[in-house]
Design a protein that fits this description.
single chain, about 375 residues, alpha+beta, five-stranded antiparallel beta sheet, two-stranded antiparallel sheet, 12 helices, 9 strands, about 45% helix, about 10% strand, globular, binds 2-acetamido-2-deoxy-1-O-phosphono-alpha-D-glucopyranose, binds magnesium ion
């Protein structure tokens, strides 16, 4: 077991004795470890080194996470839910009462309870699971609708701001790491061709057509935990919870939850949108949210799937052109592979957009 990691865990108020610490999960940004304890009587934990080059205000981020966690916990308890520790992530304070540990090398560490006998999925397996996932993200949205002031900190400024992403893309074209631009001319053209369409949401926001809410902002499907009976336990990875549009959450969940291939699929021909999964997810999501969403918000939900898939592709492509400085990669072509898979999905969604609009219209009656 890694000695340094063990010393870091010792900074937190844990119960029991640590027996093992191993790498855990498949996030692209933070380093995550599972910390097991010797006895079955004491919980296991999840240790994370937050990437502070990306999350520039970790204290602000942790403040959000802890506030949101407490708010949800309170709601669950008021509703008489008994297994609250499995239904919301519980952060463990350090001995001095802080919600993170800042080590001598400048790294930020956090610890939370591991939820035993839980699992997440990289791909949705059937419409029922898609419906449950839609309900889970819809409920999350609902639970936070009455979070008391002050507003949450903006963890990553301009995170889903398309203008910012285009600006970065254009800068990356100038960086052109290892002359990569020539290798991705098709993808570059794709980005430029879609510029007007991809400004739909930001324009709707500016003109007051769609309101800011509290959103998760990283609703990848593997951020929902299920129990051993395939019931939803909770939504995890609250790093980017902050003000945003409902479309960010709906769209990103469709991107990974209603697609037929992985985010980094090498064969673009395998990538399309599964309308049955789309419908089931949308049904679950709208069951939880349609009472509060405005008609304009609902009307833009189908577009949000295209938008979020596009913006992820744009970010992967930008990172490729910058020399892979942001996302963790497994090989040098990983980012461009991801971008290509995302852009294929954007095109596929385009082919099915009319049907998606019909489905959403039908569900929102
Ligand atoms: C990153 O690390 P992870 O998997 O939680 C990224 C998301 C992307 C996702 C793509 C802070 O999330 O925006 O959708 O990769 N998070 C950040 O898989 O940039
Ligand atoms: Mg994340």
């Amino acid at each position: 077991m890694d000695n340094t990691l063990q010393q870091i865990v010792a900074q937190f108020r844990i119960r029991g004795e640590v027996s093992n610490i191993v790498a855990f999960g498949n996030g692209h940004i933070n380093d995550t470890y599972l910390v097991t304890t010797t006895s079955n009587e004491t919980p296991d934990y999840v240790l994370q080194r937050k990437n502070h080059l990306i999350f520039k205000d970790v204290p602000g981020m942790m403040d959000n996470i802890v506030r949101v966690g407490r708010h949800i916990r309170e709601k669950l308890m008021n509703a008489g839910i008994t297994d609250v520790d499995r239904r919301v992530i519980t952060h463990i304070p350090t001995h001095s009462g802080a919600n993170f540990f800042h080590d001598d090398s400048g790294n930020y560490w956090t610890l939370c309870l591991n939820i035993a006998n839980s699992r997440s999925f990289e791909m949705i397996e059937n419409p029922h699971q898609a419906w449950l996932t839609g309900k889970a993200f819809g409920q999350f949205q609902q639970q936070l609708a009455d979070l008391p002031a002050p507003p949450l900190n903006e963890t990553i400024v301009d995170f889903h701001n398309i203008e910012f992403r285009y600006r970065n893309f254009r800068k990356a074209l100038e960086v052109n790491y290892h002359h990569r631009a020539a290798l991705v001319q098709q993808e570059i053209d794709f980005v430029l061709e879609h510029e007007t369409e991809m400004h739909t949401l930001i324009q709707a926001q500016r003109s007051g057509l769609v309101p800011m809410r509290i959103t998760h902002n990283d609703t990848k499907i593997n951020n929902v935990l299920f129990d051993e009976n395939n019931e939803v336990l909770c939504v995890i990875d609250l790093d980017t919870v902050m003000p945003g549009l409902v479309h960010f959450d709906f769209g990103d969940a469709i991107r990974t939850g209603a697609s037929t291939a992985a985010e980094d699929e090498t064969d673009p021909d395998k990538m399309t949108i599964d309308l049955k999964l789309f419908e089931a997810f949308a049904k679950g999501f709208l069951e939880e949210t349609k009472a509060v969403l405005t008609p304009s918000e609902i009307g833009l939900l189908p577009h949000s799937a295209k938008f979020m898939t596009f913006i992820m592709g744009l970010r992967f492509l930008t990172d490729y052109l910058e020399g892979d400085v942001y996302y963790k990669i497994k090989h040098p072509e990983h980012n461009v592979q991801r971008a290509r898979a995302q852009f294929r999905l954007v095109a596929e969604i385009g082919e099915h957009e009319a049907e998606m609009k019909e489905i959403v219209a039908g569900l929102s009656l």
